[in-house]
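Data deposition worksheet. Section B asks for the primary sequence of the deposited chain exactly as it was used as input, without tags or linkers unless they were present during the calculation. Section C holds the resulting structure in token form. Section D is free text for depositor observations; keep each observation to a single sentence. Incomplete worksheets are returned to the depositor.
Section A, Depositor: J.P.
Section B:
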Amino acid sequence: MSAAADTPAAEAPHRALGLTDSEYDLICDKLGREPNATELAMFSLMWSEHCSYKHSKKLLGKLPTSGPALLMGPGENAGAVTVGDGLAIAFKVESHNHPSAVEPFQGAATGVGGIMRDIFAVGARPIAVLDSLRFGELDSARSRYLAARAVAGIGHYGNSIGVPTVGGEIYFEGPYEQNCLVNAMCLGLAPADKLIRSAAAGVGNHLVLFGASTGRDGIGGASVLASAELGEDDDSKRPTVQVGDPFEESKLVEACLELLNAGLLASLQDLGAAGLTSASSEMASKGEVGLDIHVDRVPLREQGMEPFEIMVSESQERMLCVVEPAQLDAVLAICDKWDLHHAVIGEVTDTRHMQIYRDGDLVGDIPVTALVDDCPMYDLSPEEPPAQIYPAPKRRIKDGLAPADNLLALLGSDNIASRREYFEQYDCIVGSRTIKRPEAAEAAVLRLGANDGRHGPGGAPSTAGSGKAQTPGDADGPTIAVSIDGSGRRVAADPYRGTIGVVLECAANLACVGAEPLGLTNCLNFGNPEKPHIAWQLDRAVSGMADALRALNVPVVGGNVSLYNQSGDGPIYPTPVVGMVGSLPDPRVIAGNTFTDPDLAVALIGPFEPTLPASELAKLRGEELPTKLPDLNLSLHAESLKLVREAVRSGAVTVARDVSEGGLATALAECCLGGVGATIDLGPLIERLSRSQAGAGLDAEALVETALFGEGPGGIVVAGSRESLMQLSSRAHGVGFLALGSTGSAKLDIAGFSAVDSSAGTGTGPGAVVTLKEISLDVPNLQRIHAGALAERASS
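Section C:
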């Protein structure tokens, strides 16, 4: 037993590094002695929450991880699915929340750089980035600053390296004031038979570090910041945020792809959180080997760095590979060609130990299993809170507004107004693969060329055997769609059903462009899991995600967990973010999401039973969150999404938009942003609601408001020819089909008339009639409010 328990907290180095006394004692037991400074630093990072997942790993076992398209699943740098024609899409989402709260530009920029390295570490060329961002309310100067700088950082890195940012989301809610969320997702393209894994192999093989030089930037950065709550003294953490160089990374991409194309590498790993310690030890663990590392051989940008600093530095744009001796000269020549620092820093051994040397002296000796595999896994102690733990939001509008005024308030609100102010800072078309840009469809759509991803010398697209020049995005290759989604407020109201809703919305976005989901990546953003109510949120959210994915038959390919997103003001909303990749057969048949044709029928498809609690309208009114959302029939939702997907693919539906924030009225208003209005009868939905669980106990006014502005998964607004929608209605009886009206005016006109039977449990009285006072709004007015509201507040 060590003396840890008798050491005052201020004098205990392991406590300062985030290790508990019991964890320190376990380390001493594994080593048979107390660790030295280098070993302690390595353990502190590898046993941190960010690297070990010690509070979430057991829960993640609930998630499905197998599927017919899956090529590479959890445990590698990124997951991958087959998309046809011998091509694979590698993808993953990760967080850079805590660094971005401290230094938003570099925190967000290096988050993009890190997720790109995960992609080309498996042999795929990065082709697209998406982001999921959350900040405090825009009337906070801090939140406006964090949002502006984080978006600038994402744009700077992606634009500089030449990878388009094709989609994403950004929301503003009070609980993110101190802890913003910056989640970045990247997709990469590779020949399916060229994917590479990270396990080190081959005793006697060389360990080569290449890329940027190593400095003190980022020491203890992502891994330490993401393993503890942020306090008020964030300035003290500023030196731990990494600094990125996208131009160095662009060289690194090309070098890696050329090395892999030439078959020169036995394995490849990027250096992210915990730097060389994590990269090398995880390679050794997967390969069941040992590694000798000589820190005096590592190219440094600063003098006098100690061994522990070199081992835990999180300097960016670095890669680690295992190379057979016969291939070493060729590997180093390619590194020279791309003007990258490089060094043979070690070799693979059969010791199953990480042995660290400086100038021939052994300065660290740790069993690989102790460092990587023996971190204690903790059982959570979930406990449902007796009441809602989040305060009601600030009231923005008064009660009693006319329906038209509520709709305009929603359309110009921070979480619904156009994000053009932000996404126009991103290049969304570089690479020539993007065929549906932001706001043009419910998901980003990318077209892959027949030979896209088959890289010749230097990483250039191969044209061998084609007889013609091949350009990215040729029409005869596969087409994919991708979306990223989350909903902190609804998950805070009900972690289980709210998370199911997140998965269903992401799948609905793909269905709206005709894409079938192939795989999902997730980032679980939560507060302190050691607190019972947060543990309950995490447990219920993972269970909801697992049930939704099994119903949709979609596997998880990998992801990230970000915990301790909490400050003195309390935890963030529990925010599981999911990114989904799907395939579609014909890039010429993709539904848009706005009305541009004046002679279309409009309908609502799906088991849509909206409610007002936890909605955007409830937020604007300053209402407290509920503690439960309505039950969902997952098999019915899966059937509905299949129906919509098939309708889009057949061309029967030319417009498709899922109903999300702001409810059906807001979705219809957004459809009119294409320049064509619509005449809508809401009576059928009011009638359905009056007989549903969602409408139970509602009076006439509440029924109308719920039909207009209530939220919940399952509703998709579609438009097509009258004949096509009539045929579609005959196939949709099981999932729900409501004819709503038609396009063709210069206004959005919404009216409704419905006889309501009080036996359904509503408060309207026997034979009561519910009539909706007409909403009539000019389309140019809708466009003006939607386009300008956020830009004005974000820059104020």
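Section D:
Residues 591-796 form a domain with the Phosphoribosyl-aminoimidazole Synthetase; Chain A, domain 2 fold (CATH 3.90.650.10).
Residues 141-161 form the longest helix (21 residues).
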